[in-house]
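Subject: two folds for Thursday's group meeting

Dear M.,

Sorry for the delay on this. The cluster queue was jammed most of the week, so I only got both jobs back this morning. I'm pasting them in the order they finished. Each block is the input sequence followed by the predicted structure tokens. Could you check whether the formatting survives your parser before we put anything on slides? The first protein is the one we discussed after the seminar.
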Amino acid sequence: MRTVTTYDEIAVKATRYWTDETGKRRQETRKFFQTQNPYNRGADGFPKSRAQIMQEITAERDAWLASFKKEN
């Protein structure tokens, strides 16, 4: 018999919009996520809390959006 364990996924979505060189409106959506599980550990060696994970994925999302603004 096989045991399947599922973990809670903590996710944040971000969408960036722009108009390309031909005048068409474009958008790109990306999902930033991590799961809260005993193997997802922080630098201190303890499992990450939901707040720590949210802080990390929000910072990753903000960096992604900021890099797009610098390109355009």
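Second protein, same layout:
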Amino acid sequence: MNPDILVVVRASPLSHRTQEVLDSIRSHLNSSVRVVVLSARPGQPIDGVELRELDRDWPAQIRNLVVESRCRYFVIASAVDRYLSGAFEAVLQTKTDDGQSIVGRALLNVRDGTAEVGPRPFRFDYFALLSGYAYVAPGAVFIAAERFLDEGGFDRRFSNAAVYDYLLRTGAAHGVSVCDTPVIRTEATPFPGVPPEYSLLYALDCARAALEHHRALLPPGATLALTATLAHHVRPVRDEGYYDARLMSLLKQAADLNQRWWEYVALRSVGSEHGSDDSSRRSASPPFEEPIVPTVKDRLPFNAFGKRWNTAPSEWKDRVRAISPAPVWNVLRRSRRAWEAFRRPLI
């Protein structure tokens, strides 16, 4: 019997983190789910799990696995992903058009709280993704196998962000369905579902993939994520004689860009009632002890999804708007914008 879902876990080498993600998957094992672990050094056999040696050309290996299994969907899990109970059932119950992949919601462990990124209600936002805001966790993307094979599989040029590039290639043309039920609990440093040791490679490939689809200019999200990740990785390094001093000073000043990236992808605190295991029953307190951006003045007006921040307007503005007829209020607003444009430098 052909499985409905093929779960591929990339692990090099096998570790306790791999065992944890496998434990979260094995509770779902039945005839409709097949699990394959790709590792550079496969260890002892694991009940219900196939162990295979990881090829250097792993995108081609994934394609061959999809052809062999004849599955409906496949998903690539990372070592930081933990699948929630009922996740696979919820994915299979999601309504889709022919050949559409399915993106599920991902809950994030951030400090002592549970958070989530992306628009709410959750949706697949192609233009936000194209701008470089990789808010979709790769382990929550269930790729339609038939469409995947028709498209030729993953692009080897972006092997560290293969799912991101695939969504850019197929999302606009064929659409992506959304499973509103949370399917995984994962980490984010800063990218959801990407282990920290791969975050810089992921940021580089996201930037390259975004440029492939938007050749005129490196999109803002890709620029911000790449700079923030580079600053995060280089900052602890002792740089005597290796990095240029000016470069290091600039990167040290960029230390808060991770927080700014979280602002763009609409990080927000959520309750923990979605999790079913003891490890997921965390405090529902906000994920950050301090504001993501220190003051309202420093906030950017929009996030990646075109939504204004929920900042309370001033009391004076509320009173004026309440008593002003609509034409008068529109004139005042246009005058303010014209005055701001007049004062803004031309360079």
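Two things I noticed about the second structure. The beta strands are 5-10, 33-39, 50-53, 73-77, 82-83, 101-110, 113-116, 141-144, 176-186, 268-270. Confidence is low (pLDDT under 50) at residues 272-297, 310-315.

Cheers,
T.
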